[in-house]
Specification:
alpha+beta; Glutaredoxin; 38% helix; globular
Length: 85
């Protein structure tokens, strides 16, 4: 299982996304969006998301990229990958 959350400090939506993953019992790797910017932008591009429209956090759920804090979208991606029921 590979879940990576690209976030920036003091981002309330980033904190909310990480809290949701913790509540759901999903292990994840935290990545500083500034330090890992190139990696994050490449993942966005591979998924057809323009880099200039990226919203924090960017979450890579086994290759399924979500951005921003959209609880339903995050939960659906986790279910699709079999990480939650």
């Amino acid at each position: 299982m590979t879940v990576t959350v690209y976030s920036i400090p003091s981002c309330p939506k980033c904190s909310a996304a990480k809290a949701l993953l913790k509540r759901k019992g999903v292990s994840f790797e935290e990545a500083d969006a500034k330090e890992k910017e190139q990696e994050m932008l490449e993942k966005l591009e591979r998924n057809g998301i323009p880099a200039d429209s990226a919203m924090m956090p960017v979450i890579d759920i086994e290759g399924n990229i979500t951005q921003g804090f959209d609880r339903e979208k995050i939960e659906n991606a986790l279910k699709e990958k079999g990480l939650i029921q």
